[in-house]
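From the pipeline queue, job 12 of 40. The input is one protein chain; the requested action is below.

Action: predict structure.
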Amino acid sequence: MQFRQQALAKLQSAEELDLPVRFARPQGWLVLCVTVVVVAAASVWAVTGSVASTVGASAILTHGEGSYILQSPVAGQVTAVVAQEGARLPANSPVLKVRTADGDAVVRTVAAGRITALAATIGQIIQTGANVAAVEKVAHVADPLYATVYVPAENAASIPANASVDLTVSSVPTQTYGVLRGHVKSVDRSAQSAQQIAAFLGDSQLGEQFTKKGRPVAVLVKLDKEKGTKSGLKWSSQDGPPFALTSMTMASASIRLADQRPLDWLLP
């Protein structure tokens, strides 16, 4: 009841029209100014600024043309292994000798390259079409190394031409020598199966490994050159590792995607 009487008394009192009106305290104006500046700066950044993003994926060091799996054109018993692992051979070079029902035969390389694996041994019985060797397609010692990165298919379309790539090489201590530098040379727009990857790398296990999370897209990365390093390649450290890199070395890649404006995130 007391509060009601006070309210009625206030309504009946004369309006204080002669008193100045205070719109805001100085502290309020300061907060308002700061808010306006922050909103304006955020708007300008959303339109003119950019945000960098990356995609990570598994990679392997290879030569540009990859490898192939050498298969025996005949069935029989292996009587001699002519080639050795690591040997660089021209096309049509003998790899195995096989005794067949029709006489002795020779299994030869299809294209020039380096023998990276031999799957046949003396005395072994092989069938027609059996995998007997993996041959990397490299004809000359000076043929450059590349990195093949197997990127998830959903990220492939967002990779720009000549995008910068950082490679963490499994055989190189990152804390000591840093990462290997490179740039995207080409992006295969079609996803690859385990069989296609195995045919390119000459290793069926790698085909299964790179497709565990689905069919990826192959991105070919050209490694940056640097004359002052032992490897002849550019690293994030000044010198890089004191040894040369070899093909079929595993790595992990971080590819820089095209920069995006924050405003693009809000647009459909």
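Job complete. The helical segments are 2-12, 26-48, 153-156, 174-177, 194-201, 204-209, 262-266.
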